[in-house]
């Protein structure tokens, strides 16, 4: 199997991370992968990043090739039409793409972190770590910010937040206001996971976008049946289609437990109360963070469980073997039907 991975967006963080992970396909018997050219005729599998899928161009140059698109987005969906399969970064995107494609493989995007797992000790301050985009960081307010302020009444807290500051700009507001809560921002670069995040005590993974006037939103979203009328205690969750467990897997590799917003992907990667916690409300976030902040032993146990689960189900070699088997099945099905 000869695979081409290509895109014009070579320096995008998603491309950089995916290219490094997909390059390990070369370690599998009978598989070679090359990068960033348009010699489509030389390959029997062609992978495009979702930024710029040139499916029609590749199909014209090599009708026999199997073409896949990695994480197609709504803005590029039309250009991805005609692909033989898509690769989704989480169950959320996989569900959305099922409206348009039949063959879907789940392959979370996350970087490899080549450092030893953290040794948890009791110390001050308690350091919380975040990495991701600016949207999820901004979505911490008001719910998670309130939890941080409450936690800072009992513990000295620092939040270390990693994102692409140069591209996205500085945060327009404070994420916590308590005197004992300090926020430090770090520019994203390829080595930031080992240099910065390996030092934190607890990972935080916001996934949900806060709703404005949540009570009114619930009422407007009410079903027609009177039996199903809303109550103030109902949950109404909003998350991006690109939500995925990749941000959790960075902390998994480091043996650092996480508190994550309760999205489907988070629930697939974190066993609540066993390898970390899922939370929605300010109270839920505060309770989970407090549990972990007060006990280095609990952080160590949960961090180890999170790492063990990741190694068993989601490390890159496992995902790559699954991807090759997935593509081979598509090739086999075509042969069976004489395509």
Describe what this molecule looks like in 3D.
The chain is an alpha/beta fold and 339 residues long. It has 2 domains: 2-108 and 315-336, Glycogen Phosphorylase B (Rossmann fold, 3-Layer(aba) Sandwich); 126-313, Glycogen Phosphorylase B (Rossmann fold). Helix content is 36%, strand content 17%. The chain has 14 helices and 12 strands. It has helices spanning 13-22, 55-61, 77-80, 91-97, 134-138, 143-151, 165-168, 192-195, 214-220, 246-254, 264-269, 282-293, 296-313, 316-336, and strands at residues 2-6, 32-35, 45-49, 66-70, 85-88, 104-106, 126-131, 157-163, 181-187, 202-205, 258-261, 276-279. Strands 2-1-3-4-5-6 form a 6-stranded parallel beta sheet, with helices on both faces. The protein has a 6-stranded parallel beta sheet with strand order 9-8-7-10-11-12, with helices on both faces. Strand 5 (85-88), helix 4 (91-97) and strand 6 form a beta-alpha-beta unit. Helix 6 packs parallel to helix 12 (282-293) and helix 10 (246-254) packs across helix 13 (296-313). The longest helix has 21 residues, at 316-336. It is globular, with a radius of gyration of 22 Å.
Describe the secondary structure blueprint for this structure.
Layout: E1 2-6, H1 13-22, E2 32-35, E3 45-49, H2 55-61, E4 66-70, H3 77-80, E5 85-88, H4 91-97, E6 104-106, E7 126-131, H5 134-138, H6 143-151, E8 157-163, H7 165-168, E9 181-187, H8 192-195, E10 202-205, H9 214-220, H10 246-254, E11 258-261, H11 264-269, E12 276-279, H12 282-293, H13 296-313, H14 316-336
Helix pairs in contact: 6-12, 10-13
């Amino acid at each position: 199997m000869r695979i081409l991975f290509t895109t014009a967006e070579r320096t995008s963080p998603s491309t950089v991370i995916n290219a490094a992970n997909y390059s390990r396909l070369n370690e599998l018997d009978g598989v070679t992968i090359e990068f960033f050219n348009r010699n489509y005729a030389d390959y029997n599998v062609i992978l495009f990043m979702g930024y710029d899928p040139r499916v029609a161009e590749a199909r014209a140059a090599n009708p026999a090739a199997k073409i896949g698109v990695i994480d197609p987005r709504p803005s590029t969906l039309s250009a991805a039409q005609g692909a033989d399969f898509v690769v989704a970064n989480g169950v959320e995107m996989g569900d959305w793409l099922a409206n348009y494609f039949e063959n879907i493989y789940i392959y979370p995007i996350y970087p490899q972190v080549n450092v030893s797992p953290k040794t948890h000790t009791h110390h001050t301050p308690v350091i919380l770590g975040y990495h991701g985009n600016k949207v999820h960081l901004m979505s911490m307010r008001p719910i998670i910010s309130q939890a941080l302020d409450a936690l800072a009444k009992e513990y000295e807290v620092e939040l270390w937040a990693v994102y692409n500051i140069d591209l996205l700009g500085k945060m327009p507001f404070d994420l916590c206001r308590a005197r004992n809560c300090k926020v430090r921002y770090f520019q994203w670069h390829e080595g930031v996971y080992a240099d910065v995040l390996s030092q934190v005590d607890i990972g935080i993974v916001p996934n949900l976008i806060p709703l404005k006037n949540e009570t009114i939103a619930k009422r407007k979203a009410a079903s027609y049946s009177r039996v199903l009328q809303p109550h103030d205690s109902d949950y109404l969750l909003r998350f991006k289609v690109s939500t995925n467990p990749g941000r959790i897997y960075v902390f998994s590799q480091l043996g650092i437990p996480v508190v994550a917003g309760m999205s489907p992907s988070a629930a697939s990667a974190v066993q609540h109360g066993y390898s970390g916690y899922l939370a929605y409300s300010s109270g839920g976030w505060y309770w989970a963070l407090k549990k972990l902040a007060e006990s280095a032993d609990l952080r160590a146990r949960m961090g180890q469980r999170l790492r063990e689960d990741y190694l068993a189900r989601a490390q890159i070699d496992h995902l790559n073997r699954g991807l090759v088997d997935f593509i081979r099945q598509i090739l086999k099905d075509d042969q069976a039907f004489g395509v």
